[in-house]
Amino acid sequence: MNQTQVLNILPQRLVICRLDASEPLPGWAQNGSFFSITRTADELSIVCEEGLNPSDILYESGWRALMLEGPFDFDQIGVLKSVLDALAGAKISIFAISTFETDYVLVRAADLEKAVTALRSAGHRVC
Questions:
Q1: How far apart are the first and last CA of the chain?
Q2: Which pTM value belongs to this model?
Q3: Torsion sign, CA atoms 121, 104, 95, 57
Q4: pLDDT digits over 54-102, tens only?
Q5: I want to staple 101 with a disulfide (CB 3.0 to 4.6 A). Which of 22, 66, 71, 116 is the partner?
């Protein structure tokens, strides 16, 4: 059973960056009103506002974020799946970020209108 979700479109255009795992956290990555930093043994991934990243690193620009209205209890099942199923059905690729209280689904800016249509068709509310 799909869960109806409320999603808010964030105004910023975002960029997804990849650095070597051993790189220190760069100052530019911590600017702007939205950023996410994830380090693993294999890489350092940074999502930040477009234009804050240097041009001499590996990055992909042109992303928009949809924030699921939370908070969600950690025991709640299927919250993100209900959104991802709608986007997968519309053949829209995503980049997901989770925080303590909610989830963010990034879609390419060129696919934003199509994503909103798919989500609304699946019964979700997009603001």
A1: 23
A2: 0.91
A3: positive
A4: 999 999 999 999 999 876 666 666 678 889 999 999 999 999 999 988 8
A5: 71
